[in-house]
Amino acid sequence: MKNHFLIILTLVSASLFAQTKSLTVTESVLKQRALSPQRTFGFSWMKNKSEYTLLSTDYKSLLAYTLDQESEKVLCTVDELNKLLPDDAKIQNLYGYEWLSSNELLFNNGAVIFTYNITLKAIIIKKTGLDKAENVTYHAASNKCAYTIDNNVYVAAYSNKFYVPVTKNTDKNIVSGQSIARNEFGIEKGIFWSEKGNYLAFYQKDESEVADYPLLDITTTPGSLVSIKYPMAGQKSEKPRVGIYNCKTKKTIYIKPSGNSDDYLTNFAFTPDEKYCLIAEVNRAQNELWLNVFEVKTGKKIRTLWHEKNQKWVEPEHPAYFIGEGNDFIWMSEKDGFMNLYLVDFEGALGSEKQITNHQFVVKDILEVDAAKKLIYYAATGENPCNTMVYSTNLLGESTLMTKNEGVHRFDLSDDGIYFYDGYSSLSMPNHEMIYTTNGKMAKLIKESADPMSDYSLGKSELGKIKGKDGSDLYYRMVKPADFNPNQKYPVLVYVYGGPHAQMVTNSFNAGANLWMNWLASKGYIVYTLDNRGSGERGFAFESQIHRQLGTVEMEDQMTGVEFLKSLPYVDSNRMAIHGWSFGGFMTTSMMLRNPGVFNVGVAGGPVTDWKFYEVMYGERYMDQPQENPEGYENNALTKYTRNLIGKLLLIHGTNDDVVVMQHNFSLVKKFVDDGIQMDFFPYPTHKHNVSGVNRGHLMEKVLTYVIENNQ
To answer: Label partner for 268 (CA 20 to 30 A): which of 331, 398, 494, 685?
Structure first.
C-alpha cells in the first residue's frame, strides 16, 4: 500500500534444510534461555587495570583476562572460597561479585557478605546471618550493612554481633526501608548510604489510611485471608517521608512532603559532601515537580533547584547524578519533549540549569561518568527508536556516538577511561562482544555467537514500520514461518502490550520475540506485534496522547496495524486472533469488545478491566482521579461493552495477583453472566501477576491451544 513505508530486516539463518529439530510449545517456554544466543557472564573491569574478569558459564569460577592474551587465569572458585568460609556461610555461586581494589573482591549474596584478597588468598567475613533479612545494602568503605526485617530497618557494623535497630515501629501500617509508591517513578529500593557511610537514608510509608485488600491463601485448611495494602484510584493513598539516620549520634530526622501529605517523594540522592540530600517531590495529580535540597543534619529545606509543570504529567525517573567532587549534578528531564541531560549548578538560582543534550530522541540512562575528562556516557535510542545506542558528551553538549553498529547495546567503561566493553545484538547479529578504545579503535573481540535457533524449524522475525493515523511511525515485528510462501494464506496472532514505558519491538536478536512466537510460526501462523502510541522510548508527544483515555488511541493504532495486515496478500483476514497480558490483557479484551468481529478469538491474561480498580500511582498519572475524569473512566471500562462480544474469549488470572487484582476479571465475568454472554475463564491458583516457573509452560500451552482450536 502506498501509505505504508516498510523496512524489512530479515534474520540471517542457516539453510532451511538444516532445520531438523523441533520443540513442543512447553519446551519453547522453558528453553527460552537455553536457546538464547550465548553471552559472557559477569563482565567487570578490574580496578585500576586494563584487565577484565568474567564468570564461567556455571558461575562457579572467576576468570581474568588481559587485552593482548586469549588465555584465562582462574582467580578463585566456589570450592576454594567455601573451604575458607564457615559452615553457615557457604555459597553456591559467584554471581554478583564486585571489585573493591586491584586485588580485593566483595561477595554479597544477601545471606553472607565477605571480601576476598586474591593475592593473600584470604577471606574477611563482613556479615552473616542475614537469611531472614531483606533489602540488604552494604557500604564497603565503612563496613556497615543496612537491612530490613519485617517493616523495620537495622544497621550492623564492625562485627556480626553488633547491630542497631534504626526504627522500632510495632504498627504494621508503618513500613520502613522498602521501596514506596509501588515502584513507580524509577523507585527500586528503600535504603540509601551517603558517600562515606556516615548517614543512612530510608523511605518510610504510612499506610494507615490505605484500604486493606483480601487475597485468598488456598494452601491452608481452611483457606485463610492474606491482606495487602492496595490504594485504588481516587482513594486514600500512602503517606511518605524520608528518614535520615546519623550513624554517630544514633538519631534519626524525618523529611515530610512540603505540600500535601500524600505527595510523592522520589529519586532520593545524597550530595557527595554528605551535607545535603535531594528529593524530587511530585504532587498527587502528578503534573508538578519540585527538586528540593535538604540539610542532612536537621532535615531543614534549603531551596528548590528544579521546578517543572505539565498539563498532562511529569514523571521523574532518575535521581541526581553527580559528576565530580563538587555538588553540581546532571538531571534528566523530558520537559522539552524528549528525555535529555541538564547540568544543574548546586549553588545556582532556580531555572539556571544548562541543557547539555538536545536530542530529538530519547536518552534512556546515564551509564558512566569519566570525572577526570568530564565526559558523560549515556544510552539513547538514536534516530531509530528500536535501537539502544551509547553516546558520550562533554559538559558543552558536544556528543559523540560511541557504538557504530545498530542494535541494542550493553556498555562498561574501564576505570582509566581508555577502554569500554560493548556487547550488543540486533536482528542480524545474535550476540557480539568487543572491547574498544574510547577513541574508536577495536582492542579485542571477546565473543561472537551463532544463531542458537538455526537448527530448529522455527519462525523467523522481521522488523518494519507503518504510518499511524496521526502521521506517527508505528514499528512492528512480524514472525513468519521458516518455510514462508508469499502465495499462501496464513492465520495471524496479534500479540499486544501497548502500555506506557514498554517497548515490545526492538532491533535485538529475534526482534525481542518470545520463543513461543517462533513455535507458533512453525505451526503455520504469522505472529504480529505493533508498538502503538503510548508505548515507550518515543518522546512525550507520542507517549502522552493516551492521557485521560487509556485504550482509545492505542486501539486506533492497533486497528491501523490490522488494516495493514489485511492488505498483505498472504494474510488470511478471516482467521485472526489476539493475545496479551496485563495492559496487553486490557488491550486484548478492548479489541474484542470495542472492535467486535475483527478477531475470531482473544486470550487476555491478568487484564485491567476498569481503571477505577487499578492503583493510584500508575492509574492517576494517565487517567487522573475517577471524580476528575468520569467520562474517561466510563468510556474505557470494559463492562460497558460485554454485549458486543463476537467470537471466543478466554480470560486468565493468577488468584493471588497483587498488581492487577482479580476484582478486574471477576467484575467482567459477572457482567458477562448478567448479560447472558458466554465466555471462558481460567484461574492460576497461588500465582501472582505473572505465571512463572514450570507452570508458565502450562500457561502458554493453554493460550496457544485455545487460539489454534478457535481461530478457524
So the answer is: 398
Of 471, 516, 469, residue with least CA distance to 495: 516
Q: Which of 343, 351, 291, 349 is nearest to 316 (CA)?
A: 291
**Which residues, including other chains, have CB under 8 Å from residue 89's CB and lie 6 or more apart?**
111, 112, 114, 125, 128
- Give the end of a domain, one of 80, 106, 141: 141
Query: And the C-alpha cell for 313?
Result: 504529567
Give every CB contact of residue 220 below 8 A, 6+ residues apart in sequence. none
Average pLDDT, integer, range 492-509: 98
Mean pLDDT taken over the chain = 95
C-alpha cell at 344: 544543574
Residues 6+ apart with CB under 8 A from 181: 187, 238, 240, 264, 266, 617
Question: In whole angstroms, how large is the CA radius of gyration of the chain?
Answer: 26
pLDDT surpasses 90 at 555: yes
Is the CB of residue 479 less than 8 Å from the CB of residue 493?
no
Q: Give the ranges where 61-187 is alpha helix by DSSP (H).
A: 78-84
Do the domain assignments include residue 696? Answer: yes
213 part of a folded domain: no
Query: Does the active-site annotation cover 689?
Result: yes
Residue at grid coordinates 495493514 = 564
Domain that holds residue 56: 40-141
Given a cut of 50, whether residue 15 has pLDDT beyond it is no
Which one is catalytic: 451, 657, 664, 687? Answer: 657
3-state secondary structure of 691: coil
CB atoms within 10 A of CB 473: 14
- Tens of pLDDT, residues 337-348: 999 999 999 999
For residue 180, give every residue at least 6 positions away whose Cβ sits within 8 Å of its Cβ, in sequence order, or none.
Answer: 187, 190, 203, 205, 238, 240, 265
* Burial of residue 685, with CB atoms counted within 10 A of its CB: 0-12 exposed, 13-18 middle, 19 or more buried: exposed
Whether the upstream peptide bond of residue 222 has omega within 30° of 0, thus cis, is yes
Query: What is the model's pLDDT at position 160?
Result: 57
Tens digits of residue pLDDT in 351-375: 999 999 999 999 999 999 999 999 9
CA distance 436 to 445: 9
Long-range contacts of 377-384 (CB under 8 A, 24+ apart): 377/402, 377/411, 377/413, 377/420, 378/341, 379/409, 379/411, 381/537, 382/406, 384/507
Active-site residue, from 44, 142, 680, 689: 689
The candidate with the shortest Cα–Cα distance to 281, out of 302, 307, 251, is 307
The total domain count for the chain is: 2
What are 630-666's pLDDT values in tens digits?
999 999 999 999 999 999 999 999 999 999 999 999 9
Q: Catalytic site residue 582?
A: yes
Among 702, 459, 473, residue whose Cα is nearest residue 579: 702
Comparing 101-105, 162-166, 206-210, 677-681, the range with the smallest average pLDDT is 162-166
Q: Tell me the pLDDT tens digit for each residue of 131-174.
A: 889 999 999 999 999 999 999 999 997 555 568 899 999 999 99
The answer to whether the CB of 603 falls within 8 A of the CB of 650 is yes
Instruction: Please identify which of the residues 582, 590, 610, 687 carries the catalytic annotation.
Output: 582
Q: Scanning the structure block, which residue is given the C-alpha cell 513461543? A: 516
User: What pairs with residue 380 in β-bridges?
Assistant: 363, 389
> What cell was used for 559?
486497528
Is 490 among the domain residues?
yes
For residue 101, indicate whether it is catalytic: no
Per the domain annotation, does 364 fall within a domain?
no
Kindly give the pairing relationship between strand 321-322 and strand 329-333. Answer: antiparallel
Out of 109, 141, 173, a domain closes at 141
| Contact call for residues 383 and 503 (beta carbons, < 8 A) | no
Q: Residue 604's beta-bridge partner residues?
A: 580, 651
